[in-house]
Amino acid sequence: ARVGVVRETNPDERRVALVPKIIPALLKQGVEVVVEAGAGLGALIPDEAYTEAGATLGDPWSAEVVVKVAPPNDAEIAKLSAGQTLIGFLAPRNADNKIGALKSAGVQAFAVEAIPRISRAQVMDALSSQANVAGYKAVLLAASESTRFFPMLTTAAGTVKPATVLVLGVGVAGLQALATAKRLGGRTTGYDVRPEVADQVRSVGAQWLDLGIDAAGEGGYARELTDDEKAAQQQALENAIKGFDVVVTTALVPGRPAPRLVTAAAVEGMKPGSVIVDLAGETGGNCELTEPGKTVVRHGVTIASPLNLPATMPEHASELYSKNIAALLELMLKDGALAPDFEDQVLADSCVTRERSEQSAQKVEA
Ligand code: NAD
């Protein structure tokens, strides 16, 4: 099969779907790789690095399989034709997704977001690989916005107490945020509505904040809280948050708006100079005062809601994503030819242009 690597068109999207390093392994499987000129530039990868790795430069949009990072826009979809396969983030749960358009165009599309969270699929799990980048970078941003040190310092000029860091929502990004804050010397605490997370929180040297709410849902995700639970949670968090210098929020419920964990009153209760980094801005934010994509100061507290953080670390984010894409491709290939077996749960779930997976996507949304 011929695999095309496109140059992303959104100026903020600096990642690339395949880095040169992964190409020899694909060639070995009988795949041909064609790369659009400049595809790697956002990640500081020159075209020559691709040709040296065995790829050719050319038109990726005519390849049998097109691999991408960000969801395609209309102009990009117009470059595809019936029978082609597209792999990338397709935001299947966003109301304005392009899956209908891809389907009408006869394109077979695989959304990496829909890869099931099962052990066998971990190597293909792009949500996880990119969430690791986001969780790490969120803490660096928090440290950089903070008026205080993270580590405890004992100096001739006096002693500084370590920063207290609370992470709300401890999935992949939250766990990486806790680990990163710990490495910087912060005193860390984690909170989630899935009780099973407590041990993972402790395993990265953080304390577990128990508010007595259990909302474990399906497939390892959380369910949305009832109105009563939401009110109880907001009140309990309002009390808990007061004591923290830094709050990083990552809480998400698939297909739903981000849960509101931090109320305006909770922000008001924090010490001036404290920092909130809200990673849920794309679905509305976990903090009531969050302005997605912006950094604002409210009641003396800096609230940052960066969007698409993985794209701000394009080198490693692309490297990890490439590994995910290559593993997914490998699953679809047989003797170098594209032959996806839809009996395989990973392919059946992630292919969003087939009847069956559409129905299951709707089931998740309902
Ligand atoms: P996510 O991005 O969907 O959500 C982030 C976190 O927010 C989750 O831990 C969730 O429980 C939490 N959350 C939701 N509502 C909340 C609320 N009201 N209050 C507090 N916290 C709230 O999660 P994710 O990072 O995609 O991880 C989801 C699950 O999938 C985890 O159990 C993770 O370990 C699992 N996982 C499994 C695999 C695998 O086996 N292949 C790979 C990756 C992740």
TrEMBL record:
Reply yes or no: does the keyword ATP-binding apply: no
Which key words tag this protein in UniProt? NAD, NADP, Nucleotide-binding, Oxidoreductase, Translocase
Give the main EC class.
translocase
The UniProt entry, under SMART domains, shows: AlaDh_PNT_C, AlaDh_PNT_N
Signal peptide boundaries: none
**Residue ranges of every copy of the Alanine dehydrogenase/pyridine nucleotide transhydrogenase N-terminal domain listed in the record:** 4-134
EC number(s) per UniProt?
7.1.1.1
Q: Which GO terms describe its biological process?
A: NADPH regeneration
Coiled-coil residue windows = none
* Residue ranges constituting the Alanine dehydrogenase/pyridine nucleotide transhydrogenase NAD(H)-binding domain according to the UniProt record: 143-305
Q: Name one GO cellular component term.
A: plasma membrane
The GO terms this record gives for MF are:
NADP binding; oxidoreductase activity; proton-translocating NAD(P)+ transhydrogenase activity
Q: Which reaction does it catalyse?
A: NAD(+) + NADPH + H(+)(in) = NADH + NADP(+) + H(+)(out)
Keyword Nucleus on entry: no
Source domain of life: Bacteria
Q: What does this protein do?
A: The transhydrogenation between NADH and NADP is coupled to respiration and ATP hydrolysis and functions as a proton pump across the membrane.
Q: What is this protein called?
A: NAD(P) transhydrogenase subunit alpha part 1
Q: Which organism is it from?
A: Nocardia terrae
